[in-house]
Amino acid sequence: MKLYISKLILGLFLLSTSFIFAQNLSKSQFQVRGNCDMCKERIENTAKKAGAKEARYSIDTQMLTLETEPNILTDDILKKVAEAGHDNEKFKALDETYEKLPGCCHYERDLQPSPQTEAHHQQHKKENEFYVKGNCGSCKARIEKAAYDAGADSAEWNAETQTVSLQFDASKTSADKILKKIAEVGHDNEKYKASDDVYNGLPGCCLYDRGIPMGAANPKVHFEEGSKSEHQDHDEDNEVSENSYSQHENKIDGVTVSGSKAPTSLNKKEAGLTFNIDKKELLKAACCNLSESFETNATVDVSFSNAVTGTKQLKMLGLDQKYTSLTKELLPEIRGLASAYGLNFIPGRWIESIQLTKGGSTVTNGYESITGQINTELLKNSEKPETSLNLFSDFNGRAEANFTSVAPINEKWLQTFLLHGNGTFGNTDINDDGFLDRPKGTQLNAAYLLNYNDLEKSGLGSHFGINFIKDERTAGQTGFNKQLDQDEQSAYGVGINISRFQVWNKTGYVFKGKPYQSLGWMNQYVYHQQDSFFGLRNYSGKQHTYYSNLIFESILGNTNHKYKAGASFLYDGYDETYLTDNFKRNEIVPGIFAEYTLTGLKYTLVAGARADFHNLAGTQFTPRLNFKYDFTPQTILRLSAGRGFRTASVFAENQQYFASNRSINILQNGGNIYGLKPEIAWNYGVSLQQEFKLFGRKSSIVADFFRTDFQDQVLVDLDRSPQQLTFYNLEGKSFANSFQTQWDFTPFKNFDVRLAYKYYDVQADYMDGRREIPFMAKHRGFMNLAYATNKNSKGGFWSFDTTLNWVGKQRLPNMSGNPAEFQLPAYSESYAVLNAQISRNFNKKLRAYLGGENLTSYQQDNPIIDFKNPFGNYFDGGMVYAPIMKANFYVGLDVTF
C-alpha cells in the first residue's frame, strides 16, 4: 500500500512539474513558405533541432507555430529554417539552398524579409531619417511629393524600413514642417498623425495599419502572390504600361519581388481570362516553333499539317487563327501574307513566355482581336550572361539548331542574340501515295534585341529588335525536280520561297514622382515577300507594314481609378499576283482609343473603346468590356463582351487549298477589299475559376463559355463545288459557341494532371442554307500528365510528360460532285493522338530529351484526293482533318554555357 502511495505521489509530482514547466513555455507564430508534406516535415524537424519544444507547420495557412522555453530565441530557430531552404518573415533562404530542394518543394518566393530586421529591433535610424507609415508605390510618390512641396531638397521613402530620408536647407525649412506636410496628405509619422478624414480618403491599397507601432515592420509590404503584390497591381511603381515597355524586375520601394512561376498559370489579377505560359511548359514537348508550343495546352487547337504544303493552323473558341490577334512583343506579328506560314517563324527556343487571352483583349492593342490574343515574348531577361545551344532531330529527316545568348552589357543595357536554322531532308512518303508527307527545305532565322532600363532613376526604358528570316520549301511528288520549271516535267511540285525583315522599338517613360503615370511609344516596320507555285498555279505577294502606337497612362484621383488613352497608326501595302491577276491595295488606318480601369476590394472593371478611320473599310467603332469579381480569393467570376473587325486576305489565308484543282471564285458585293466588305464580330464570354485543396495540394477548375456572332463574315465555301473555292460575304447568321472546362490537380508530389473537355457549335448561313463549319469537331477531350523526380545535389532530375488529344467526328466538305471514288464521307471518324517525352537534366546546364508524336499511329486514309492524277479535275490536297504521318520520334540536347 505504501509503495502504491509513493508511486502515486511521485506521478503527481512529475505531472505537476511538467505542467509548471509547460506554463513557462512561450507560444508564437511566424509566416514560413512551404509547399508540401515534405516541406512540413523539414520545417518542423529543423525547428525542433534548433531548440523549439514543439513545432507545428500548416501548409494551408503557411504559418509555423512554435513553443519555446524562455532562453530560446525564435530568431535563431527561424534562421535555421531559412538555412534549410524555407523563406520566412525574418530570414530568406539562399538561392543555392532553395534550388537544391526537391521540385515539389519549390514554393512561390513571395516573402522578402527585410535586411534591416535588426535595425528595426534596435530602433536605430540615421540622421534626418524619420518613421513614416505607408504601403505601396502610390504611398511613396505621395510622401516624397509632400516632402518636396515642404521645401526638401531630396526625399526617399523606403517601404521596408517605413522611413523617409530627408535632405533640406535648415535656413529654408525644417524636418518638423516637412513631417507636418506629410501628415496632411495622409501619412502618420513619428511627429504628426494624419486626420481621420484624410486617411480614410486614401486609395484602398494605401490604407496602412494604424495600430502597428511606429517603426515596426509593415506586413502589407510582404507580397501575397509570387510575381506581383496587390499593391503592385494598383501602382506598378517602377513599371511602364505593359503596352509600352516590359520591365523584367518588378520592384517596389526597394523590395524586389521574386517567385517560382508555374509552367502555366491563370492570372488571378487580370480582368480578362489570361493564361501565362512559361518557357518551362514549352520544354514538355518538341516545341520547334510557335505552332507546336500549344501541345500541352487545352485552350488552343492545332490543325494537322496540310498534305502538300505542310502548314499548321491554330484554332481558338472554335474559329480559325485569323480571328485571334497573334502578336510578338505586343506588336502585330502573324497576319496578312504571313498568315499561312507565320507560326513557323518564331522558334520555340526563342520564347521566354506566352500570354494567352480568351475573348476580346484590351483596345490598346488594336481592333483585330475577336476570339482572343496570343502574345509571345522573346528571351531578353537575365541577371547574368547565359548562352544556350539546342540541337534537335527527328527520325524522318528533320533537324534544327538554336543558339541563344542573353547578356547584360552594364547595369542599364542588355542584349540578346538569337539564331535558328532548320532543315528537312529526304523523301518522306510513309503512306506510299507518291507525295511527300511534309515539305523539304531550310530556314535561317536571326534576331538581335537590345534593352535599356533606367526606370528607377531617369524613368526611361527602351527595347529594340531586328529580325531576318529566309525560308525555302519544296513539296509535291517525290519525283519532282525543283531545278526544272513545272511545265518542263510531269511530276507535280510545290515551291515556297519567303523572305521577311522586321525592325521594332518600344520606348517608355515613367514620370518623376508619379509611378502611376507613364508614356509609351511602339513602332514597327515589316517587309514580307513570298514567291510560290502550286503545280501550274503561281501565287506571289509583297507586304509593307508600318505600325505605331502611343499610349499615355495615369490615374483619376487615386490608383483605384486608372485610365489609358492614345493613338495608333497602321499602314499595310499589299501587292499580290494569283495566276495572271494582280491585286493591290493600301490600307491606312489612324485610330484613337481610351480605356478606364476601376478597382474595388473584390472587383475589377476594364472598359475601353476605340475609333479607327480605315480608308477602305470606313470608320469602325470598337467597344470592349471585361469584369472580374472575386467571391473569395479562390472563387473568381469573369464577364467579357466586345467588338472587333478585320479585313480578310483571302489568298494568303487559304493557301492550304491551293494545291488542288479548285478554281477561286470571289463573289463581290461592292466592298473595297477584293470587292468584299470587312468582317465584323461580337464576342461574349463568362468564366468561373474555383481553387480548392485536393490530396492536401492546390487544385483548380476553370469553366468558360464564349459566343461569337459575325456580320459580313467572309465565308470560305468548300461545299458549292469540289472544283471551286468560293468566297463571299455572309448574308444571315454565323456564330460560334465554345464551352470548355479544365481541371488541374496534383494527386501526389511531383505529379501534375490536367484534364479538359471542349464543346464547339460553329454554324453559318451559306448561300444554300445553314451548315456546320467543316473540319471542326463538336467534342474534344484532353489529358496531360507530367511527373518529375526530385533534384539531386547537382540539380539533376528526370521528367516524364504525355499528352492525349481525343477529337470527335468532324463535318467534311460536300464532294458529291466527284465520282464515288473521289468523294468524302459526310463526317470523319473520331480519333486519338498520343504524344510523350522523357527528358533528363543531368545538372543545371545539360539536358537531353527523347519523345514521340502520334504514338497511336492514327493516320488519315488518302489525305490527297486523286493523288495519281495531280493535274486532273479531281485532285485535292486540302481535305486534311487528321494526322497524315504515323508515329514519329525525336531526340534533342540542350546545353547552357
Overview of this structure, please?
This protein has 897 residues and is mostly beta strands. The protein contains 10 helices and 43 strands. The strands form 7 sheets. The protein has a 22-stranded antiparallel beta barrel. Strands 9-10-16-17-14-15 form a 6-stranded mixed beta sheet. A hairpin with a 4-residue loop joins β41 and β42 (846-853). α2 crosses α3 (74-83) and α6 crosses α7. The longest helix has 22 residues, at 2-23. It is globular and about 90 Å long. The termini are far apart. The model is unreliable at 1-23, 114-124 and 222-260 (pLDDT under 50).
**Using DSSP, what is the number of strands?**
43
Strand content: 35-45%
Global structural class: mainly beta
Query: What does the average pLDDT come to?
Result: 87
How many H/I helices?
A: 10
Radius of gyration: 31 Å
Helical content stands at 10-25%
- Give the N-terminus to C-terminus distance in angstroms: 81 Å
What kind of sheet is the major sheet? 22 strands, antiparallel, barrel
Low-confidence stretches: 1-23, 114-124, 222-260
What characteristic shape results from the CA principal axes? Answer: globular
